[in-house]
Write a structure and sequence with these properties.
There is one protein chain. This protein has 173 residues and is an alpha+beta fold. It has a single domain, classed as 3-Layer(aba) Sandwich (Aminopeptidase). Helix content is 31%, strand content 32%. The chain has a seven-stranded mixed sheet. Strand 2 and strand 3 form a beta hairpin. The longest helix is centred in the first third of the chain and has 18 residues.
Length: 173
């Protein structure tokens, strides 16, 4: 793994991180046959304007940089009562399987604690068993799976909660 740095992002970085999100989620769209015709709301098709609309109070975007180039992205949104939603968790395909995703995830866990939170919630494609197993291996619990009208896959709901015995492991990423 090359040296990397995780930094907060500002709106002026939006086109760069939107590109990382689209390129990262394009592999998911391909794997699950999602297109602009059958599911235009998929993250791989997110526009800069749609992403810009998410920027508000309680929205925390972060970029993972290697040698000054953004190769990963994640955002946290304060849902109140200590709960944060994690969205657009992205690592460019050519940088996957080197531990950068785990580094981003540990960063998010620490950031939630720093912000006074105690839980991260996420939604995934339930049928993406590789991703689901990865989150479970990283202390997430599968809560439920739901089928929503107009969505061509089952939505899996997962969460991570602070456990006293996990605090010591979180501090290094």
């Amino acid at each position: 793994m090359m040296d990397s740095l995780i930094l907060p992002l500002a709106e002026e970085n939006l086109s760069d991180y939107a590109d990382v999100i689209r390129k990262s989620f394009a592999t998911v769209a391909r794997d699950f046959a999602l297109t602009k015709d059958n599911y235009p709301r998929h993250t791989s098709f997110i526009s800069d304007d749609q992403l810009k609309s998410k920027i508000s109070s309680g929205y925390y975007p972060f970029g993972l940089y290697i040698e000054g180039i953004i190769v990963g992205f994640v955002s946290l949104t304060d849902m109140e009562n200590g709960v944060f939603e994690m969205n657009h968790f992205s690592v460019l395909p050519e940088y996957r399987h080197y531990g950068y995703g785990k580094k981003l995830l540990c960063f998010c866990k620490n950031k939630v604690i720093e912000l006074g939170g105690n839980k991260i919630i996420i939604e995934i494609i339930e049928e993406n068993t590789v991703l689901k197993k990865w989150y479970i291996a990283n202390e997430f619990t599968h809560i439920e799976a739901k089928q929503y009208e107009g969505v061509p896959f089952t939505v899996g709901h997962m969460e991570w909660e602070i456990k006293k015995n996990s605090l010591n492991r979180l501090l290094s990423y």
